[in-house]
Amino acid sequence: MTSLDKPTATDHDSEQTAAGSAHDAKAVTEAALFEAFGGLRGMVETVLPGLLFVTIFTINKDLHVSAIAALAVSLLLVAVRLIRRDTVKHAFSGVFGVAFGVVFAMMTGNAKDFYLPGMIYTLGLALAYILTTLAGVPLIGLILGPIFKENLSWRTRNPGRKKAYAKASWAWGLILLGKCAILFPLYWWADTTQLGWVLVALKIPPFLLAVYLTWVFLAKAPPPIDVFAEMEAQEKAEKERKAAAAAAQREV
After folding, report:
1. What is the span of the domain harbouring residue 199?
2. Region of poorest pLDDT, from 9-18, 100-109, 236-245
3. What is the Cα–Cα distance from 63 to 112, expressed in whole angstroms?
4. What gap in Å lies between CA 138 and CA 155, rounded to an integer?
5. Average pLDDT along the chain
6. Rounded to whole angstroms, how far apart are CA atoms 237 and 57?
7. How many Cβ atoms from other residues are within 10 Å of residue 18's Cβ?
8. What is the torsional sign of CA 193, 196, 200, 206?
9. Each residue of 142-187: pLDDT tens digit?
10. What value does the CA radius of gyration of the chain take, rounded to a whole number of Å?
11. How many Cα atoms within 13 Å fall on the side-chain side of residue 149?
12. 128 with 82: CB under 8 angstroms?
């Protein structure tokens, strides 16, 4: 091996820097996904009301008791977050979903209708992921852009990142469509307990798969453009320019 073939200290430092940057990008992506989708606690808050509803209904077949228990635990989860001064967006979304389900089931008298609003929401969300991607504005980019401090800069300034958002949105849309393809036939053919237990079983695995695929796509994508840092730099440069101009005028 000649001296030209041997790795230099500079090469080694560059490799370490690149590895560190890749690790940082993955860590930032993980943190952003955790913030956007609520992490472990958000998953518990998503599953618990439906699990309580189907458990109680399986035991006593009482729609009113099951619905009230599900709504009560949703409100309790929100109260705990308020007391601890945590973010409540995930818990509130759970309350609204349960409340719609309770109202719908009470109006129709059919316990299966407790699940129908959530199923319709899932179908609408699946279509939103697919249609926004076809329109060139993938929904996952609209959700994660502000968290990454890039807003919509990925649309015109970061094509590699836009491509990753498109792949992730396709993944979310197709996974949710697959979930709907299982649940809607069960709504018509299965009884309340069968539908409820299948729905509880399908709460977390499809979600985790979609989050994992999103992480894979974004971890390989170019880093986000921090538009907030750019604006701060521009403001600082403008202030320095004005200060320099004012100093020059005083000297004259």
Report:
1. 111-236
2. 9-18
3. 9
4. 9
5. 82
6. 64
7. 10
8. positive
9. 999 888 889 899 999 999 999 999 999 999 999 999 999 999 999 9
10. 25
11. 11
12. no
